[in-house]
Amino acid sequence: MILSQARAQAAATLREAGIEGGARDADRILAAVLDIAPDRLRGADDVELTDDQIARLEACIAARAARQPVAQIVGFRDFHAHRFVVTRDTLDPRPETETLVEAALDLPWRSVLDMGTGTGVILISLLAARRGASGTGTDISPAALDVARRNAQLIGVTAAFHAADWYDGVTGRFDLIVANPPYIALDEMASLAPDVLDWEPHAALTDGADGLSAYRTIAAGAGAHLTAGGHVLVEIGPTQGAPVARIFHDQGAKTRLIRDLDGRDRVVLARFDA
């Protein structure tokens, strides 16, 4: 099978399986099998695929047809300026989260705490962009922490990683606290796409309640863990801007909503002056 045939067949298989954006996903998978960038497929020579490449492609396309996320299938996600390892023990990093990273890089800070770090994309992206700063990542999942440590090593970032349930066991103060917490309400879980509901860790998606529990905990403990004039940046669901801002305001913070590239509320910025 030559490259053009493999590409067309993979895209057709995913379309037939009802995968939205199937051609794009097929290209990402095929590019990973060939170890090239997806944007190089169109201009690549129409070479003959090896038997091993065909077998890998077929297995990966079958996995995507079963709704497994592409990042889990290929084992990585490109985020901000780096490539991150992704497994079933972590959330698949979303492009919208780059809004939080960019907002953080506009702030003055030399130390950062990332709670619920997952793959480590937020913390590692920040430390890679601000060399000389220090950072700590925490997560309740030991498996997720293993992924974060691996990503830090691969990208060449030094960070501390600890198992913690939010602030439990966290000592010291930080100029910046960041988090992309589980913000999906329990009664909204059933409406998620199977790509998310069946494949990503539920503890990273929902608090099992109204979707606001983590924000209450983060806001309540921020004053005891921030340096004077420190900031908190949290990712939110697109309808959560007002209630999350109110939670931080009630703890004495000045707040501002930041929108993503699609114009949706995506991040709450909270400044604690005292």
From TrEMBL:
Q: Please give the biological process terms from Gene Ontology that the record holds.
A: methylation
What is this enzyme's class at the first EC digit? transferase
User: Which reaction equations make up its catalytic activity?
Assistant: L-glutaminyl-[peptide chain release factor] + S-adenosyl-L-methionine = N(5)-methyl-L-glutaminyl-[peptide chain release factor] + S-adenosyl-L-homocysteine + H(+)
Entry EC no(s): 2.1.1.297
Annotated Methyltransferase small domain ranges read 80-185
S-adenosyl-L-methionine: present as a keyword of the record?
Answer: yes
Q: Which CDD domains match?
A: AdoMet_MTases (cd02440)
GO molecular function terms here? peptide chain release factor N(5)-glutamine methyltransferase activity
Query: Which keywords does the record carry?
Result: Methyltransferase, S-adenosyl-L-methionine, Transferase
Matching InterPro entries:
DNA_methylase_N6_adenine_CS, HemK-like, N5-glutamine_MTase, PrmC_N, RF_methyltr_PrmC, SAM-dependent_MTases_sf, Small_mtfrase_dom
Q: List, for all copies, the residue spans of the domain called Release factor glutamine methyltransferase N-terminal.
A: 5-75
Which Gene3D superfamilies does the UniProt entry name for this protein?
DNA helicase RuvA subunit, C-terminal domain (1.10.8.10), Vaccinia Virus protein VP39 (3.40.50.150)
Q: Is this entry keyworded Transferase?
A: yes
**Residues annotated for substrate binding in this entry:** N180, P181, P182, Y183
Question: In which residues is S-adenosyl-L-methionine bound?
Answer: G116, T117, G118, T119, G120, D139, W166, N180
Q: Which domain of life is it from?
A: Bacteria
Q: Which family does it belong to?
A: Belongs to the protein N5-glutamine methyltransferase family. PrmC subfamily.
Q: What does this protein do?
A: Methylates the class 1 translation termination release factors RF1/PrfA and RF2/PrfB on the glutamine residue of the universally conserved GGQ motif.
For this entry, the protein name equals Release factor glutamine methyltransferase
Task: Name the source organism.
Answer: Paracoccus stylophorae
Give the gene name.
prmC
